[in-house]
Design goal:
about 160 residues, mainly alpha, 5 helices, about 75% helix, about 0% strand, elongated
Length: about 160
């Protein structure tokens, strides 16, 4: 649901800026640019924030930011300047880092801990992203193999 709310504005606001406000595609693109930069920064920050706070509190904070910034979009009209729209979208994109990054980190850690690694469609080690999960899966397999070797080795002496 958060993805729908977050990304709907990415597709609808450029159309609004061009159709209703009569601005060029370049102007609409420039208004969207800060959102991309802030999304990148907040995604990097989001994975660091969960080391200080719980995933739940980080995600709840992200949803609160998304809700408040989305409510501000109601104020956008035909006369709203581009920098105000860009600022609203940049604030909304903070929620992306505070929601997606911590949830992804937690899901990857849980999958690695449960021994599922990065299995997508039943194929271990294949799938999108998951570099950390692949590494964790490799480490888990190494440990299991080492344990098996220890239990099968004849006793010394």
């Amino acid at each position: 649901m958060a993805s729908v709310v977050t990304w709907a504005a990415v597709f609808l606001l450029p159309v609004f800026v061009q159709s209703v406000q009569g601005r060029s595609a370049l102007a609409a693109g420039i208004a969207m640019a800060p959102q991309g930069v802030v999304t990148g920064l907040s995604t990097a920050l989001g994975s660091r924030v969960i080391t200080r706070f719980t995933v739940r509190s980080t995600v709840c904070c992200g949803f609160a930011v998304l809700r408040l910034a989305s409510l501000l979009l109601v104020l956008v009209g035909a006369g709203t300047s581009l920098w105000v729209i860009a600022l609203m979208l940049a604030v909304r994109s903070v929620s992306t880092g505070l929601v997606i990054s911590p949830v992804g980190c937690r899901a990857g850690a849980r999958a690695a801990r449960d021994g599922r690694g990065d299995r997508v469609r039943g194929r271990p080690g294949r799938g999108g992203g998951g570099g950390a999960a692949r590494g964790a899966e490799h480490e888990r397999r190494r440990r299991v193999t080492a344990r098996r070797a220890e239990t099968r080795a004849p006793p010394a002496g």
